[in-house]
Fold Inositol-3-phosphate synthase.
Amino acid sequence: MPSKKITVKSSNLKETTETFQSKYVYRYNKTESKTVGDAVELVVEPKTVNLEFKTEKKIGRVGAMLVGWGGNNGSTLTAGILANKKKLQWETKEGVQSANWYGSITQSATMHMGGQHYAALKDVVPMVSPDDLFIDGWDISDLDIYASCRRAKVLDIEIQKSLEEELKQFKPRPAIYDADFIAANQNDRANNLVKATHRFEQMEQIRSDIRDFKQKNQLDKVIVLWTANTERFCKVSENLNSTAKELMESIKNNESEVSPSTLYCVASILEGCSYLNGSPQNTFVPGVVELAQQHGVFIGGDDFKSGQTKIKSVLADFLVGAGLKLASIASYNHLGNNDGKNLSSPLQFRSKEVSKQSVVDDMVLSNDILYPNKQSDAPDHCIVIKYVPYVGDSKRALDEYISEIFMGGKNTIVLHNTCEDSLLATPLMLDLVVLTELMERVTFKEISSVEQEFSSADCKEFRKMDAVMSILSYLFKAPLVNPNAPVINALFKQRAAIENILRALIAIPPENDMLLEYKLPLH
């Protein structure tokens, strides 16, 4: 491909160079650049890298272990899998209802395959069926999963009664409990705890539980997913958790700032099990990321993106993309489930606030016309979450978006959203497990003869994708990405990334919306 001359306005040549290198995979030739006023004229050469993907078709026996199994999300997922496997039907005042996976992109969404043809995501490449999943997990409460469903009050009572005998067979394993990391109001349900008090012993118990589950069910792989309470942020510092070695030493020394979620994650990595974080705390300290990369184990997070944040990422993308300056976002929530109860504590709420606030960052960074100063011009962003027990799992969300428009005008959009929290989150949990399991069967190698981006030693054999699973960004509020990668929060770009990776696995070019064939004259 020919060189392309791009003029960019910048006072910092180094910053501009790094942006082009990381965002566009261009090779930048410094000898062909010059400064013109306050602009830097760059000559960039598009670089083509040919990759060969290999997807193992045999899925094997797959298990999912849930941290917080007896909570609203964990109990609802378990009941949902059983209900769909049994093709359950039940009657409500609206009529006969049937079990489904609405809200799951792998099970209920389609992607464009060319022309007017669409296919379910689950049919593009072999994916594990929800019917075939084995479920286990841990919880600080000793209630069986049937009793947990009763306590959660998420599913219709007829569904619960129909699944009673099966659900009673599921009993959570004792969980790690540290009152310093979750709200004090969770104390009353903490009666099913790992006996060990030393962090290293607790981690070893989790490893033993994973091996036990795997052996008893003759599983080929286990994926661990955190769906427990939000923790407060843990400290991140040198000599504590900034490297894998420091983190392992801190666990052996029973360091109090190693959170329970990090212990579960380290245990999973050491057992070769992918780990997914469905809450907003900083489980993935630098030492965890390094440990995952050393062991070639996938990690993904943070915090399920089920309702209000999905809408926020769409609206922010729409407004900024339309050239309107989004200036203020005010988000108010109230809910009455145990998540809301835990988040009524300030430290745990702060973890949630951080994950919700970052959702518009990449849109702001993308437009230096609307936001010339990224710090002072960034939108005001206020988030409020209140605990109202009466509304239970039915969360209310009120959002106000104020934008600056043409000639000093203002545009205000106000939304009210009532959503059943766990019924939105549960299909996401399934998607996370299904997509992670798929990516564990995907390997690639570079087959290009042009200048190599990877070292020649790395290109000889097929290898797995990077340990940090940014492909899951569509499903997480605060998507974890490789330190060298940009964070993408715009929802449809995240969705397109999943589709295009699936297309790559079957050697179909990435989708684009030019529709050039319909825009050119026929003669």
About this structure: The CA atoms of residues 362 and 488 lie 6 Å apart.
